[in-house]
Specification:
By secondary structure, this protein is of the alpha/beta class. It folds into two domains: 210 residues, Up-down Bundle (Growth Hormone, Chain: A); 234 residues, Rossmann fold (3-Layer(aba) Sandwich), CATH 3.40.50. The protein is 49% helix and 13% strand. The strands form two sheets. An eight-stranded mixed beta sheet has the order 7-6-5-8-9-11-10-12, with helices on both faces. Strand 8, helix 12 and strand 9 form a beta-alpha-beta unit.
């Protein structure tokens, strides 16, 4: 070759060239499996860490990191050994890693969740579970491009075509897993199905005899998913479009609704009493504070109907709208927690805030007890939400919120309280439990002496809470910048709160009020 010749025209060795149709199938399958695995990763981590924006940021950020490393490694390895069988082995190992993930996840996630908040725990969990399969899948596209090149003059065209096919595969994998396979077959079978398709793609490069392994991996689809998180006394378990749901029977005969990570209890049912000894009982002190008959109330975050059940019995004149976003939670509560036995309750399947925005109804009391543990949804803690809530309250009405906290850390409650005061003329706080605080926002100012006097009219079954309320009621002070739809770092505040508490040697457990032993 003369010095002036066009170096870009040099041909690639024919032995390195593979049929583009076959490679198109390979990169399409790898792209689909990558995104299906990412969607499944969010479902796998949700029972332990929730599905907040921080958890999603960890998943997406690490997936992108693994893909970047894979792209770099794939290009280097392909230049040194442009062999179809090597690419086949890379895909095969990735497939086996994906297939193993749902079976090895539980001990890893159990270890990660102990003593860690969602930020740290989800980071290390994603680091441990998905580094190998996603990095290997990232190697596929650059390796396939190297195998498909017959002439470097076609490099741009070949790279563009294969990356486009890979991206289309990613789109298919995203929507197919999120909309079809996870709701219908579950997370485990979605990952096993992706693994089987990857083995099928690897066999296109390794030879037909490897199709037997495809059948072997596909046979794992018959393995029962089992319990998502083992719980003593498990009565019912399912995976809905929103979360993992468990109904557990406890040693005292009560039943508890657990969602996602399973640490917190979202609803409690006792056969012989509507009182629980938990934070739900504190809402029963709210109606007397209005000093007038209460006709209608709204519960945002109805869950298993614990609050509504107690109100239906102790305040039989109240009509209750209970908003619950997940219909499968309501179905489970009907089967195991007596939700249908409350004639005062109208269950509404909707997201709380959109329901409020679209509704023309007005209420005397709005109860907010919606948690995607350990977080209150940020859009239920902003100035815009409280403005909407105020507009749906009748004159003299009140909004009552359950705000989670830990001893010695009031950052979250101060932020929410300051936001409440931005829209309500007066707000009060009461912390009856170590990890829960009741926050009240009134549409019209009312003095502390008046509230202390009015609460004495509470129903007899919650008499024991009255002195606790009278002694612990404090005014909310505007100490923080109000949260808004644009800026509401609820997850960040919650994670810092939990991590700091655990680092001081604290343990998260259940609190009990004197209404039950």
């Amino acid at each position: 070759m003369t010095p002036g010749s066009d170096v870009a025209a040099a041909p690639v060795a024919p032995a390195a060239v593979l049929g583009r149709a076959r490679l198109s199938v390979v990169v399409f399958t790898a792209g689909a499996a990558t995104l299906a695995t990412e969607i499944a990763a969010s479902r796998l981590l949700a029972p332990y860490f929730g599905s907040s924006t921080i958890v999603w940021a960890n998943i997406i950020g690490l997936i992108l990191l693994y893909l970047s490393i894979g792209y770099w490694l794939g290009g280097r390895v392909a230049d040194r050994r442009p062999e179809p069988r090597l690419l086949g082995w890379i895909i095969l190992v990735a497939a086996l890693a994906v297939a193993a993930t749902p079976f090895i996840a539980r001990p890893i996630l159990d270890l990660a969740v102990e003593g860690l908040g969602a930020v740290v725990g989800s980071f290390f969990a994603a680091l441990a579970l998905f580094a190998i399969p996603i990095t290997l899948l990232g190697m596929v596209a650059p390796f396939a491009i190297r195998l498909a090149l017959g002439d470097v003059q076609e490099a741009g065209t070949v790279a563009g075509q294969l990356y486009a096919i890979s991206t289309i595969g990613s789109i298919v994998g995203t929507f197919l897993s999120a909309i079809v396979t996870i709701p219908l077959a579950g997370t485990q079978r979605t990952m096993l199905g992706s693994a089987a398709l990857l083995v099928l793609a690897a066999a296109l490069l390794l030879g037909l005899r490897w199709q037997l392994l495809t059948l072997g991996v596909a046979a794992l689809l018959l393995v029962p998913a089992g319990t998502i998180k083992a719980s003593a006394g498990l009565l019912y378990e399912t995976e809905s479009s929103y979360q993992y749901i468990q109904i557990v029977e406890r040693s005292d005969g009560s039943r508890a609704l657990k969602l996602n990570e399973g640490v917190a209890v979202h609803s409690v049912w006792h056969e012989d009493s509507v009182l629980t000894g938990g934070v739900w009982d504190t809402f029963l002190l709210v109606p007397p504070l209005l000093d007038r008959p209460v006709e209608r109330m709204l519960v945002i975050g109805n869950a298993g109907g614990t609050v509504a059940r107690a109100f239906g019995e102790l305040y039989p004149g109240i009509e209750i709208d209970g908003v619950e976003i997940d219909p499968e939670v309501s179905d489970a509560a009907r089967r195991y927690m007596g939700l249908e036995d409350n004639p005062r309750l109208n269950v509404i399947t909707a997201d709380g805030r959109p329901y409020l925005e679209l509704s023309d109804e007005t209420y005397d009391i709005i109860v907010v007890d919606a948690y995607h543990q350990p977080y209150i949804p940020f859009y239920l803690a902003t100035r815009e939400f409280f403005e909407s809530a105020r507009e749906h309250l009748r004159p003299g009405g009140v909004i009552a919120l359950n705000v989670a906290g830990v001893p010695g850390d009031e950052r979250l409650s101060e932020a929410i309280g300051s936001t409440l005061l931005a829209e309500f003329p007066q707000a009060w706080r009461w912390q009856p439990l170590r990890f829960n605080e009741l926050m009240l926002g009134f549409t019209e100012p009312v003095g502390r002496d008046q509230l202390v006097e009015r609460v004495q009219n509470a129903p007899t079954p919650v008499d024991s809470l009255v002195p606790l309320f009278q002694g612990g009621l404090e005014p909310v002070e505007p100490t923080e910048r109000p949260l808004t739809d644009d800026r509401a770092p609820v997850e960040w505040l919650t994670d810092r709160m939990i991590i700091d508490f655990v680092s001081r040697g604290g343990e998260l457990d259940e609190d009990y009020l004197p209404t039950r032993p």
